[in-house]
């Protein structure tokens, strides 16, 4: 039996007449007692029957006695019904029986009316009046009034109970909705104490409590976070809405907060979100745009300058072959050295403005740092000691070429700052499960205030004519290209530079592991499948995101998803990575490094640039020599 049939059967068992009309005054449902009480025809008892037609029928059958203007009477009843006001009345029908009529509006529109035959109750009241010679007229009158009031009060209580039920249900739905949102939603009163929280604070600020009702905001957030938000909170208490971001030092996450003043009662509504990945994506996109602008500004100049240097080098080479004396020979050599230095500067300009991709591969950080020490030590004076500290034990995905250039560049800068003696320390560590951090500190003179502000700007240098001003700018460019950040500071001993790269763990797949290959090109998919099977991996294939998602949900043994970014259909490999957040993911693409999809992809998973060889893919999946 359907729910509708069950509802109808239940209503028919009730001894009172019941009718429910919607907001358009059309019948939604009625019970058998309603039809029987008013002797209604079938056409007025089916869903959709008009309330006005029912009233007109009752007038025609004499239910309301003599009615002079039927149309006006019906119009008045319809107008009263449209007001949807709770009411309770008692009246005598044309057949002499007494009924009570109790009506109440419904929360979602429409109204319900309950008709009760109270003839017996009224008869008993009449008998009581007739037979009681002892009771005074005033007592009888008050008893009748009390009886009528009680019936009306019961109707009002029923309406209040229904309203309370609806409010409770709405509150439960609202809380369930807010608790499912990936953000912390809360309210604090004028004293800064939480009066509402969806208990999502730990998902935004790791390590904080979820049950914070009644706590002061300073205790709930912690001292550091509270000091960052305090000025904005005070402004919100004064009536000014504010949106801002800050870094939660305890978890190293980037948090966006919105403070909105409560327009009704003193207090502030709070919305906070973890935007760490968004910030990484934004940083990479901003750096790409800066690179494009730098490339536009320097490409023409570099081309002409390169031509001039070529002419100068050629002419100086001819002069060097002439017998012009020792004095001229020294001038020629100095000119050649200056021209070659100009060529080196052009190459560095090309590095910083070219569309170079971040090409990560699995690397043991300890071995990588050992190679750094091997390369850097010969360029250091005997009085400078190089110390290596490694806190990363598992393989990670990094672009070793770009990272090696950046760290060596900073080591050489530290060497120049230390002079003939001192110490340089390189330390690697995993930070809060979010970043791979490399720290390079020295015992040199440290950064000046001006250097702390401008050292990452292109062409800024403190070495006078000996510096190009592109070293730290290249480090900054490399870090931003990976979606990371650079921090400069001074310690009690000297200068300190911290490189933070998105933490991307990498582990070799066991042989015979199942790989889901997602590629829309049939020929290319076959080629990549052969590469994977040559690595003793098992492959299942898909051409679109829906196909890949169906396979991922149906095959629990999938150890890795290898997907192109551009796929068949509207959804991309980036969409797939977001839909399968708990599954190991690798992406590949032929899109340029500055394409928005490529930038977004690098914040979600390691990306392999096309075209690639079997050796490239092997290293990308963790089968390179550094993991052997």
| Order of adjacent strands in the largest pleated sheet | 2-1-5-4-3
Using the CA coordinates, give the radius of gyration: 40 Å
Largest sheet: 5 strands, antiparallel
Q: Count the E strands.
A: 22
User: How many helix segments?
Assistant: 20
Mean pLDDT: 80
> Poorly predicted ranges (pLDDT <50, ≥5 residues)?
464-469
Helix percentage range: 40-55%
How would you classify the helix and strand content by structural class? alpha+beta
Structure, described:
- This protein has 628 residues and is of the alpha+beta class.
- It contains 20 helices and 22 strands.
- The strands form five sheets. A five-stranded antiparallel beta sheet has the order 2-1-5-4-3.
- The longest helix has 46 residues, at 276-321.
- The protein is elongated, with a radius of gyration of 40 Å.
- The relative contact order is 0.05.
In short:
The protein has 628 residues and is an alpha+beta fold. Helices cover 46% and strands 22% of the residues.
Which keywords apply here?
46% helix; five-stranded antiparallel β-sheet; 22% strand; single chain; alpha+beta; 628 residues
Helix and strand topology:
Blueprint: H1 3-12, E1 17-21, E2 27-30, H2 32-38, H3 51-60, H4 70-83, E3 87-92, E4 98-105, E5 111-117, H5 119-131, H6 137-180, E6 184-189, E7 194-197, H7 201-204, H8 217-221, H9 223-237, E8 242-248, E9 253-261, E10 267-274, H10 276-321, H11 326-353, E11 361-363, H12 365-376, E12 383-390, E13 396-398, H13 400-418, E14 421-431, E15 435-442, H14 449-454, H15 471-481, E16 485-490, E17 495-502, E18 514-518, H16 522-534, E19 538-542, H17 545-554, E20 558-564, H18 573-579, E21 585-589, H19 596-604, E22 607-609, H20 614-620
Parallel strand pairs: 12-14, 18-19, 18-20, 20-21, 21-22
Antiparallel strand pairs: 1-2, 1-5, 3-4, 4-5, 6-7, 6-10, 8-9, 9-10, 11-13, 14-15, 15-17, 16-17
Helix pairs in contact: 3-4, 10-11, 10-19, 12-13, 13-15, 18-19
């Amino acid at each position: 039996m359907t729910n509708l049939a069950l509802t109808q059967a239940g209503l028919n068992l009730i001894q009172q007449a019941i009718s429910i009309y919607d907001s358009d005054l059309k019948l939604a449902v009625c019970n058998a007692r309603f039809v029987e009480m008013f002797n209604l025809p079938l056409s007025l008892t089916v869903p959709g029957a008009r309330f006005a037609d029912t009233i007109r029928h009752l007038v025609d059958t004499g239910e309301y006695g003599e009615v002079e203007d039927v149309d006006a009477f019906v119009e008045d009843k319809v107008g009263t019904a449209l007001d949807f006001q709770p009411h309770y009345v008692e009246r005598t029908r044309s057949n002499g029986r007494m009924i009570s009529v109790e009506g109440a509006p419904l929360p979602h529109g429409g109204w319900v009316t309950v008709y009760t035959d109270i003839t017996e109750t009224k008869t008993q009241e009449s008998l009581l009046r007739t037979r009681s010679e002892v009771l005074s007229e005033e007592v009888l009158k008050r008893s009748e009034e009390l009886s009528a009031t009680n019936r009306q009060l019961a109707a009002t209580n029923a309406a209040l109970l229904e309203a309370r039920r609806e409010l409770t249900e709405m509150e439960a739905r609202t809380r369930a909705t807010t608790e499912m949102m990936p953000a912390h939603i809360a309210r604090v009163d004028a004293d800064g104490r939480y009066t509402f929280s969806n208990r999502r604070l730990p998902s935004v600020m790791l390590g904080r409590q979820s049950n914070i009702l009644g706590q002061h905001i300073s205790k709930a957030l912690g001292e550091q976070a509270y000091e960052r938000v305090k000025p904005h909170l005070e402004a919100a208490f004064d009536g000014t809405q504010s949106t801002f971001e800050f870094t939660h030092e305890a978890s190293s996450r980037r948090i966006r907060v919105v403070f909105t003043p409560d327009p009704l009662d003193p207090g502030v509504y709070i919305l906070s979100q973890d935007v760490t990945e968004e910030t990484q994506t934004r940083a990479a996109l901003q750096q790409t745009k800066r690179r494009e602008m730098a490339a536009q500004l320097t490409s023409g100049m570099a081309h002409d300058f390169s031509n001039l240097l070529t002419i100068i080098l050629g002419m100086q080479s001819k002069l060097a072959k002439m017998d012009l004396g020792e004095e001229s020979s020294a001038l020629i050599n100095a000119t050649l050295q200056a021209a070659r230095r100009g060529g080196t500067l052009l190459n560095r300009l090309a590095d910083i403005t070219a569309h170079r991709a971040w090409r990560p591969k699995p690397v043991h950080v300890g071995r990588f740092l050992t190679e750094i020490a091997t390369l850097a030590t010969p360029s250091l004076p005997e009085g400078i000691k190089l110390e290596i500290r490694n806190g990363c034990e598992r393989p990670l995905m990094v672009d070793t070429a770009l990272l090696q250039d950046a760290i060596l560049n900073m080591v050489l800068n530290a060497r120049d700052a230390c002079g003939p003696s001192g110490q340089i320390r390189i330390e690697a560590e995993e930070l809060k499960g979010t970043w791979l951090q490399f720290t390079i500190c020295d015992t040199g003179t440290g950064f000046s205030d001006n250097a702390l502000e401008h050292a990452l700007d292109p062409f800024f240098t403190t070495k006078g004519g000996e510096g190009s001003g592109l070293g730290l700018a290249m480090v900054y460019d490399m870090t931003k290209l990976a979606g990371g950040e650079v921090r400069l500071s001074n310690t009690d001993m000297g200068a300190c530079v911290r490189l933070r790269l998105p933490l991307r763990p990498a582990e070799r797949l066991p042989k015979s592991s199942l790989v889901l290959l997602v590629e829309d090109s049939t020929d290319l998919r076959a080629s990549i499948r052969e590469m994977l099977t040559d690595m003793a991996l098992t492959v299942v294939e898909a051409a679109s995101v829906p196909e890949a998602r169906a396979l991922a949900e149906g095959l629990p043994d999938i150890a890795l998803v290898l997907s192109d970014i551009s796929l068949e259909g509207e959804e991309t490999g980036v969409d797939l990575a977001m839909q399968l957040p708990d599954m190991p993911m690798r992406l590949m693409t032929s899109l340029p490094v500055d394409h928005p999809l490529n930038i977004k992809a690098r914040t979600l998973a390691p990306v392999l640039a096309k075209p690639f060889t079997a050796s490239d893919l092997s290293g990308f999946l963790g089968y390179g020599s550094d993991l052997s």
